[in-house]
Design a protein that fits this description.
Length: 706
């Protein structure tokens, strides 16, 4: 078939694009955004288009520099159906909505004979609530909305938001600059449960409703993993508009984000808030019972040891939760009967109901003690204030994703790191896709359409928890394909993976002197240019403190300033080094001579006392599998791949990834972890690496002089 744009057919329908049809669209898109079309990008775009057309799932590993955003946006916009694009980070959302999609839509409009539309959609509490700003729905700190001077900085923040409302077109918190604290934003926003809906006097002008209206008419709707998870978990509420496909970017984060969204928690503050809000709307006896249950729960929290409850709930906590469940249920009954016509009171009643519903649902879920949940008590301290939280998380989210997301529409998962140990199977299994259901790229499966459509109808009719639905979906194959399109970078020539085999394995006592001495040598020979990725904040801070005494190099440490400011300083000065922990392992993009050495202090296994990881490891073991490899090694592999991926960000970048953990070279699982990382040239020769770093430093300095 010749390379031609699709044309409209009688009746207004437009045929689906073929693989050849994508070529001019992709060329136009690349020209509009700058850059050049790459083989990997073309292969990915064709695979995405085929997956959408064949209604199968697709996993695509696309290395840094592939241009994967365009590779999925072009077929999504040309698909002529609504596609949800979910990202893990705010930065990528902004890039898609503010830069990529506007230029892309303009570029391909003449080729597809229509103007594709796109929209950004977030959870309701990300938008300012006009009713609340105007005082129609006061929060616990109700006076601050009208007397900001009474509460100092917090009230001033709220006043600034009220002024911003007069000029904003979106009401989106992320468009407010500078931002405000979480507590201040809570005074001007509502959750979905608290919203008055169509009864609100500001419903027609509501920012959240306007965003949803735009999404309902868009070809591509950009959202986040959390909202995608909420849509999968709660079939009673239509969080996302009707759609025909889902594309998940930064898909290596999906399991963690869905687990986080599915985690419930109860704190003293949350329970006291529910009691405080419900007090004036419920019967006196109900309020008294809720007050007693709140006090009993607070006492039980303090008396319960920290950690996972492997043999059921401690007696005192169990009794307190049962009383709290019953008292909050009685409050909900009173709140449903006690209704009035006053919108202000309706708003406060909505808040009370939402708070009590949250307490009741979590307490009931914990008391049910399902085998597929993990329950634990966690203690934290922030600025000298200690708090205790009882939490419940799903043991696994495979069934949730398989039955609630993958059964609905074709799903495309893409990331630079989807192959663990060189294989897609692990990531596929973590989202509920079986190895036996994988098919070849050129094979089109026979979809059992009647069964598929019946299952989807049950989903949309709200029977997603019924046995009939489960029976149908369990018999519905989830066909999936996988493709690694590689990277335009020549990793073996551009980068070195150095493992300090001669060092002893890391201890639990923190970073050792011999590790610090080696790190100092590496940084000194590199002339700075170092991103230090540590498994703990204590390790990063200790290393920064001691190496400042050893080296005449500027060393920044996470927590000393905002992350954005630290990254700016790091990128601006090649001699500057930056140390930090988890948030630096992913998303840092500093091409050029400012980042030519990435140092990883130890293999980033999950903490041994992490309750969810420990429970998942045990569950895999009970099923006959290797829990360590399935959970801990997989977790470490993803982070190592992401961390090592910070090094090469451009076609002419060069550098070294140095791992100060000898287990990467000596342990049996070391090969699995190394196979998950970019394919750098590998060595354990310290002298050779130091020589290479000196050469890289000299080339960088010479380039600056030229």
């Amino acid at each position: 078939m010749p390379n031609s744009a699709p044309t409209a057919t009688p009746g207004g329908a437009t045929p689906e694009p073929t693989e050849d049809d994508l070529t001019p669209l992709l060329d136009a898109a690349v020209e509009a955004l700058g850059g050049q079309t790459r083989p990997g990008q073309i292969a990915m775009a064709q695979a995405v288009a085929a997956a959408l057309d064949d209604r199968v799932h697709l996993l695509v590993q696309a290395g840094t520099g592939t241009g994967k955003s365009l590779a999925y946006l072009v077929p999504a916009l040309a698909h002529h159906k609504r596609v949800i694009v979910a990202t893990a980070t705010l930065a990528l959302q902004r890039q898609l909505v503010a830069y990529d999609l506007p230029r892309l839509a303009t570029a391909i409009k003449p080729l597809i004979n229509r103007e594709p539309a796109f929209a950004l959609l977030k959870g309701r509490n990300n938008y300012v609530c006009l009713n609340k700003v105007e005082g129609g729905q006061a929060d616990d700190d109700q006076d601050m909305l009208f007397d900001p001077l009474a509460v100092g900085k917090l009230g001033a923040e709220v006043l600034r938001v009220r002024e911003w409302v007069e000029e904003t077109e979106t009401g989106d918190r992320d468009d407010l600059s500078p931002g405000v604290s979480d507590r201040a934003w809570a005074q001007v926003s509502v959750s979905a449960r608290e919203c008055l809906g169509s009864k609100c006097q500001y419903f027609e002008d509501c920012f959240a409703e306007q965003a949803r209206e735009l999404a309902r008419s868009a070809d591509v709707v950009v959202t986040n993993h959390a909202l995608l998870a909420i849509a999968a978990m709660d079939s009673d509420v239509q969080v996302l508009p009707e759609h025909d496909a889902v594309i998940v970017d930064e898909a290596h984060e999906l399991v963690n984000r869905v687990t986080s969204a599915a985690t419930g928690e109860l704190t003293k503050t949350a329970v006291e808030r529910a009691h405080h809000r419900a007090d004036k709307f419920v019967k006196e006896a109900t309020a008294a019972n809720l007050a007693v249950a709140t006090l009993d729960f607070t006492d039980a929290l303090e008396a319960t040891p920290e950690g996972r409850f492997q043999r059921g709930l401690p007696e005192q906590l169990g009794m307190a939760l049962a009383a709290l469940r019953d008292a909050s249920r009685a409050a909900l009954t009173d709140l449903s009967k006690n209704k009035g016509g006053d919108l202000d009171m309706d708003g406060a009643r909505k808040q009370a109901r939402a708070a009590c519903e949250s307490v009741h649902q979590v307490a009931e879920r914990i008391l049910e003690g399902a085998d597929q949940d993990v329950v634990w008590l966690e203690r934290t301290e922030f600025r000298g204030v200690k708090s205790s939280t009882v939490k419940i998380a799903p043991l696994g989210i495979e069934s949730l994703l398989r039955f609630k997301m993958f059964a609905r529409t074709p799903v495309v998962l893409t990331s630079a790191t989807l192959k663990l140990g060189g294989d897609f199977t692990g990531v596929a299994a973590s989202v509920g896709l079986n190895a036996s259901e994988r098919i070849e790229l050129d094979f089109v499966p026979e979809k059992p359409e009647e069964l598929y459509d019946a299952a989807v109808k049950l989903l949309r009719d709200g029977d997603s928890d019924g046995e009939e639905f489960l029976d149908m979906v369990q018999n519905l194959p989830q066909h999936w394909r996988a493709l690694d399109v590689g990277s335009p970078f020549d990793y073996p020539k551009q980068g070195i993976l150095y493992v300090a085999r001669h060092l002893d394995a890391p201890s639990r006592d923190g970073i050792r002197e011999d590790q610090l001495d080696l790190l100092a040598d590496l940084m000194d020979n590199a002339g700075g240019r170092t991103l230090g990725l540590f498994s703990s904040m204590r390790g990063a801070q200790t290393a920064a403190e001691k190496l400042r005494e050893k080296l005449d190099l500027p060393i920044l440490c996470q927590g000393e300033d905002s992350l954005a400011e630290l990254l700016r300083k790091f990128a601006d000065d090649p001699e500057t080094c930056l140390f930090g922990t988890l948030s630096l392992w992913q998303g840092v993009n500093v091409p050029g001579p400012s980042l030519q050495l990435v140092v990883i202090d130890r293999i980033p296994f999950p903490r041994p006392d992490d309750p969810v990881s420990a429970a998942r490891t045990e569950a895999v073991g009970r099923g006959g599998g290797n829990g360590f490899m399935a959970v801990s090694a997989a977790h470490a592999a993803l982070l190592l791949a992401q961390g090592a991926g910070r090094l090469i960000r451009a076609i002419d970048d060069k550098g070294v990834v140095a791992v100060l953990d000898s287990r990467l070279a000596t342990a049996r699982y070391g090969g699995f972890l190394r196979a998950s990382m970019p394919p750098f040239w590998q060595t354990d020769d310290t002298d050779r690496v130091l020589k290479s770093l000196r050469a890289i430093d000299a080339m960088a300095k010479a380039a600056v002089q030229d």
